[in-house]
Amino acid sequence: MEPVFEAADCEVTSVAGGRLLRLRAAERGCLLEHWSGPLLPSRLSGLAVCLIGENGCRLQANEGCFEGRISGYQLIVDAPALFEPLVRPFEVKPFPKRVALVLLRLLRWPGGSTLLRAWHERRR
């Protein structure tokens, strides 16, 4: 049995009404879908998640060995550097951002909505 997920220190939380068990390490994680097994401590150290048979799952940690059943699992890797180049072109520049904030404050005054609409049309 080769582990599908390993972590030195892991935070354990139950989400979606107990249907998902989230194992969160430093920059990666694992979601166990439909976990039916014993209650787990909030932190596990030296964790290794192994699949047993078709739907079985074993969580081996320094705190003990926990066996249960799952319907599936997902491995999650945090990679914000992948998304930064995609978001950068849509970033609002400082000057237009300040102008928009001032115009939004002027909405309370008569004619403020006209100014905001005119500014927005000019930007297109």
Give the helices and strands as they follow along the chain: EEEEEEEHHH
Question: Helical residue percent?
Answer: 25-40%
Looking at how many chains there are and whether they match, the oligomeric state comes to single chain
Report the major sheet.
7 strands, antiparallel
Please give the alpha-carbon distance between the first and last residues. Answer: 59 Å
Roughly how many Å is the radius of gyration? Answer: 24 Å
Strand content: 35-45%
Helical stretch tally: 3
Unreliable stretches (pLDDT < 50, length at least 5) are none
Quick check: average pLDDT? 87
Q: How many domains, in number, for the residues?
A: 2
Explain how this protein is built:
- The protein is of the alpha+beta class and 124 residues long.
- The chain has two domains: 3-80, no CATH class; 92-123, no CATH class.
- It has three helices and seven strands, in the order βββββββααα.
- The protein has helices spanning 80-87, 94-105, 112-123; strands spanning 3-15, 20-24, 28-33, 43-52, 56-61, 64-69, 72-77.
- Strands 6-5-4-1-2-3-7 form a seven-stranded antiparallel beta sheet, with no helix packed on it.
- α2 runs antiparallel to α3 (112-123).
- The longest helix is centred in the C-terminal third of the chain and has 12 residues, at 94-105.
- The protein is elongated and about 70 Å long.
- The model has no long low-confidence stretch (mean pLDDT 87).
